[in-house]
Amino acid sequence: MLEAKKTNGIREEEKAALADLATKTRNGFVKFMRKYKLDALVAGVGPGYIEAQPDLIPFGIFFGGLKGSEPKLIEIAYGFEQATKVRKPPSL
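Structure tokens predicted for Amidase:
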């Protein structure tokens, strides 16, 4: 604990990884979204390797967008939910 207090929590290795991630995001995802004028990127997420287990289907869906696009993403996700009626709230 005392050693941790002597740091700011981020070493050079983490700083380099964050810088690399920011560069890849700018040069990949951001360029892609802007080039094709997309509001969102949608992907299914599942329990593992779907290719290895074709009888499994995704159990979730991901809506991603550019920084500041949260209101549009909520609108798209809500529209999807209303159009498909596939959402099943968890039973507690």
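The first strand starts at residue 41 and ends at 45.
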